Amino acid sequence: MPPRKSNIDEADHGPEAGLVPNPDLTPARWFVPVVVLALFAWLFGDALFRGGMFVFRDAGHYYYPLFKLVAEEWGAARVPLWNPYENLGQPLAGDPTASVFYPGKLVFALPLGFDWAYRVYIVGHVLLAAGAAFRLARHWQASAMAAGVCAVSYAFCGNVLFQYCNVVFLIGAAWLPLAVLAADRMLSGRNPRQAVMFGVVLSMMTLGGDPQMAYNAGMMAAAYALLLWWRQRSAGDDNGENTECDRPATQRNVVALLRTRPAILAIAATAGLTLSAAQVLPSMEFASLSGRTENEGISQRVLCRDMRPGTHGGNIYAFSVGPWRMAEYVWPNVSGRQFPVHRRWLEVVPAEGRIWVPSLYMGILPLLLAVGSLRFRRAKPRRVWMSWAAVLSVAAGFGWYGFGWLLREMQIETVVGEPFGGLYWLMTVVLPGYASFRYPAKLLVVASLGLSVLASWGWDDAFSGKSRVGRWFPWLGGLSLLGLIASLAVRPWFGGWLADVKPDMLFGPLDVAGAANDMSFAFAQTAVLCGLFYLLIRKASGANDSRLQRFQAAALLLVAIDLAVANGWMVACSPAGQWHEKSAVAEAIAKQHARRHGESAMPARVYRHPLWMRPSWREAGSADRMKESMQWDHATLWPKYNLADRISVLDVQGAMKPRKKGSELFSASSLAEYVILPGDKRLRGAERVPVDVPDVSLWIPKIGPQLVFLDEGKGGRGLSRWELLRHDPSRVEVEVELARPGTIVLSEQFYPGWRLWVKSDDKQPREVPIIETGGSLRGAKLPAGRHKLVYSYRPTSVYLGAIISGIAWLLVLVMSAIWIRDVLCKRTVG
Question: What is the pLDDT of residues 348-395, one digit of tens each?
Fold first, then answer.
């Protein structure tokens, strides 16, 4: 007897109600990839054809040196477990942004050279985002052209495209459409095999460095399961589980249980966690020992009235999206371009915060089609699902701008802080572990996917004459013309209104004329596009298949041109050769370090003053500011450029850093062998080293100890001699000679997983406990005599996670092989 399907499953696999997709003629099948590739080549032309490298934000100074360190460790036949060059050492495998075990990192093993591998790694995920969005739309019965607009509007919208600057979040965005696709298949068909595939996608997000997106995808799947259950219950179909009557009763019960949606979700979650355990376990360990899990009290977590700067609680709501920025969805760059010259006039708004992406634009046609396709009740479950996902993600992206913020803006006295009452606040309070994440603006990627899928459904409706969206274009076009006229009329007063906009510390003072031009061009662009799209949709109504295909092709091409003009400026590159130049500060430190310690020395320990920029940059903007800032950051070892020169920086802000505990015997300043300060600052009692970098000074304080001998808690002279024999990231060998018993303190981070073997005189090596000394350093009690100390990092969390993940991936491969065999057998029999 064939398995029984529920009514909701049968309906969910058909086309949209009342929608008959246009036949996919042959031109559509090649035209869509041509448009996608042409837009891709235009946006990334500097990197692909002109020798450029991605320079802005984390793409240049964070991920480039970090990924290079990981690649070099693998190239040296060492597993990248430990990073000794930041914060006196911290886990490398436990840092999600390093994505040490992500399969996509195999591109760095290809014979491309690191620069090309890095480019391919980034742009490859942009193409994956486009291809996955196209596949999702086709799965949901969209025509090829409609799926093309889904791919273009998703992969090249501001919220996804700009993630090339934050590579791990680009990876999450690239895999998200496949997560939604797998979730639909597993829940609509109640298929445990598809649940495993959903778990594979979740593991790709997590291993790639974006566990928050995996969490979001899991929440979306759970919400979809509830929606399907509710629809099924309302339809009176409470059974609907696939069973087979010719099986024994016990087996039928097991199969029925496994095909329930709660069981399907549990299988998916288990698969995702086990497949990514090699990343999850060490990351959880690192997070528990970092500031991400600081308990800041109920006023911080719930009432939000003590948002202390510099704490994780204070950073949770950083990069929130102001509600006024929703205008950027309609008018591209209406707020002014952020770089390379400062034109962002929207900073005149007192409540405007830090910018995650400089533009939210996804194309005016996809936006209107998506808005016209929103359905929150009476529609297919998948349309309701995508509608709620899009709207709620936008609302969550407001983050800081919650109910408490509204009360404060209305000058109403309240005991709660600004984020209180917002959707993102509710998520951090209710969802387990969600408070360990940060940056609400990241949720707009989910909104972008939902809107792009809705746009694909609206596309077929609009071009078949079954949608009223076409009537909106004259109204929006007219409104945009009024905006253009108003922007031109107020130009004489524009500079006065923006007098309170402060200079940007990187891009300089506001370019008022440029900001006005951006705003006027935004209104003009939308007005022109509204007219063109109105004509295309109107002429397409009632056209035969051949003419309809031409009108759709013209519309898709126009969407691509729209996005190229609106968002092309956001992909910033600088000549790749800059990354291979020597850092002037690093060269000066290397010379001094060799002179003081010889060649066999531990990495130089440097304290760099926290974030500062050249004062002259605030006074004047420059079209070459990206290149200038990269050169200056590289020269001054900010923030991860020290990794290339193997210099240890003592206080580095990143995704996570070890949390100090107890009263420290040694502070960062006392351990620093070299100090980098702004040019106008002085360090008392220190020697200044000449360095040819503007607005920078390099100092050598009193020599910080690399190895310390403690006698009853005080420094002593019991250390007769010591010599560094080896210093690899995960292994340190030191030989010491002690005149009397005491505690040897290695000036590196104490952390679980480090083990110490000591060979004293002619005795056999023995393991000696490492004790936490001074709040954060590695200490060991030793008797008098000559000893060889071997420190080795062997983290249980990584080894256990690797075993779990290895077994899980082996099972997935076996299951995949069996499934492929069954498919081939069925085809052979057929």
Answer: 998 998 999 999 999 999 999 999 999 998 889 999 999 999 999 999
The answer to whether the beta carbons of residues 316 and 438 sit under 8 Å apart is: yes
For 658, phi then psi, to 5°, come to: -60, 140
Contacts (Cβ under 8 Å, ≥6 apart) of 76: none
CA 750/CA 93 separation, integer angstroms: 16
Same domain, 673 and 714: no
Going by pLDDT thresholds of 50, 70 and 90, the confidence category of residue 416 is confident
Residue 418 in any domain: the answer is no
Closest C-alpha to 341, from 523, 518, 162: 518
Q: Among candidates 348, 212, 354, which has minimal Cα distance to 283? A: 212
Residue 731: inside a domain, yes or no?
yes
676 lies in the same domain as 732: no
**Do the domain assignments include residue 593?**
yes
- 777 shares a domain with 670: no
Q: Are residues 727 and 692 in the same domain?
A: no
Whole-angstrom distance, CA of residue 686 vs CA of residue 78: 38
Please state, as a whole number, how many other Cβ atoms lie within 10 Å of the Cβ of residue 81: 21
Helix or strand run (H / E) with residue 313: helix 312-315
* Strand-pair partners of 606: 649, 674
The domain in which residue 613 lies consists of 584-636+660-700
In this structure, are 770 and 696 located in the same domain?
A: no
Q: What is the mean pLDDT of residues 114-141?
A: 97
Q: Band of the pLDDT at 128, cuts 50, 70, 90?
A: very high
- Going by C-alpha positions, the residue among 530, 227, 263, 233 that lies closest to residue 392 is 227
Q: At what angle do helices 261-275 and 192-207 cross, to 10 degrees?
A: 40
CB atoms within 10 A of CB 74: 16
What CATH number is given to the structural domain containing 752? Answer: 2.60.40
For residue 103, give the nearest of 221, 278, 231, 247 by alpha carbon.
Answer: 278
Q: Look at the chain and report how many structural domains it folds into.
A: 2
